[in-house]
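User: I'm curious whether this sequence folds into something compact or stays loose and floppy. Could you predict its structure so I can see for myself?
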Amino acid sequence: MPDEESLLDLTVRELLDAVAARTSAPGGGGAAALAAALAAALTGMAARFGDGSAAQEADALRARAALLADADAAAYRAYLAAVRLPSDDPSRADAVTVARRDAVGVPAEIGEIAGAVADLAAGIARDGNPNLHGDAVAAIHLAAAAAATAAELVAANDPPDDALASARAVADAARARAAQA
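Assistant: Here's the prediction. I'll summarize afterward.
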């Protein structure tokens, strides 16, 4: 998949092929972002069959999560490029620091969005149209999986302790929402 092609412009089949390919990205971060976006889409749909009050928030979360699928791939490619710089390159240390910050920050943001989607969907599952309860619960589970995946990716990128603790707390809260559903 070319670097400039957006995951959002691929067909579902092309997206699945891109994720399955022997390439560094898209990977878990893109998949987590798209899962969070899909969970938000389900949340928005379920909200529209109720009083609709949460639909706009779900749409905003969906848009933010979807954009992070591409951002994650870009951040990971930048990280790989930085660590491949020769060790005697004076710009290597700074490049690695910046790339690592993004490689931690993007999945952390994916996790935050996924946690917000899980919370929003939980309210709809509890108080929304009972005919859409299953869709709202599906959204909670997808969001919880996205948050847990994002926390694992934050952990894999040598984060500051507070970033890791925050990502894990968000994931734990989302999993708790899923268990309650």
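Summary: The chain has a mean pLDDT of 94. Residues 111 and 147 are 4 Å apart (CA to CA).
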